[in-house]
Amino acid sequence: xGAIKLSLFKDMLGADETLFKNPIALDYDYQPxxxxxxxxxxxxxxxxxxxxxxxxxxxxxxVYGAPGVGxxxxxxxxxxxxxxxxxxxxxxxxxxxxxxxxxxxxxxxCEAIGYRFIQNKNTEELFRIVKNVLNKKAAVIVLDxxxxxxxxxxxxxxxxxxxxxxxxxxxxxxxWALNLDDRIKSRxxxxxxxxKAYNLFETRGILKERIKFAFIDGVWSDEAFNLVAKKTFExxxxxxxxxxxxxxxxxxxxxxxxxxxxxHVSIAIKKIDEFSIxxxxxxxxxxxxxxxxxxxxxxxxxxxxxxxxxxEGGKGVYKTFQRKIxxxxxxKFVSLQRIEGGAEGNTTLVKYSSNRSLKDF
Length: 361
Ligand SMILES: Nc1ncnc2c1ncn2[C@@H]1O[C@H](COP(=O)(O)OP(=O)(O)O)[C@@H](O)[C@H]1O
Ligand SMILES: [Mg+2]
Fold this sequence. Notes:
By secondary structure, this protein is an alpha/beta fold.
């Protein structure tokens, strides 16, 4: 059997051949050498850091924008350049989704300053050590996905106790910043830096560059690439593009094709469409449920609304609830009014806006 060669398979990709040159370049956390189209945003962040080079205190920044628009990659790029530029400023990048407590953040900071004797020390003790070291120099601390942090105590301490620093907060939710409590807000006074979605030209540029690294030259047909770029632009998330490039490449390879064609991209797109339709209808139900509660209790405090939501069977945690309210406010389905220093401290009132209907979803 093994000796028989069918001519039918002659033009096919051999079992030991591949279309990929370096698939790692399609990983979401792959750090490309250059981050094009984000020069202005990066310059604004750098301007916040600049005073640190002149022995002064830096400015803080709040970076916001939808998922997959380059917030993380652009900021990490700055951190890396800073590392190469100077030893006088200590750069630290922390993802708060992975490190979601004060203690975990402190451990990251200990690692950044090279402090190893962490056993049997609590958050306060470790913070004192970190503070003493960082205050001999200056620090740039990036807290990515800051809205995932379970308590902002550590942020408060960093703001209060570090003399020369720039703290960069990154979030997908602008309204998160608007709901910050005053003791943090007044110390943060950040430069607000919005990352807008990429246009089609930029989307194409970014994906083209990745193809150069990830695939053998010439395996992508123009039509297939155009399809990926268009879909990515429509959904506004570069990650979708990276995913489609990989999936389509894999599909082509599995079919032993030497080229990635429209048919392979179409299969990949169909899969994500099925996935995202399911996701958005779930989200819609939950959001509708919350909106209905606001409608019945218009003008109520957000904490009270959450209690009602739970009583009526809502399963989300408070943070998620808050975020959905924020989304509804962005869409003008509800309006928010902040009340400062009332009997129960600061709170937000949520009012139903009757000029939008659920059908607009
Ligand atoms: N300007 C860019 N140049 C190169 N790659 C980019 C650019 N913008 C985004 N990417 C890539 O797209 C993906 C999503 O970007 P990321 O920074 O993680 O988005 P965000 O943090 O805004 O959710 C990452 O894999 C990233 O490398
Ligand atoms: Mg990110």
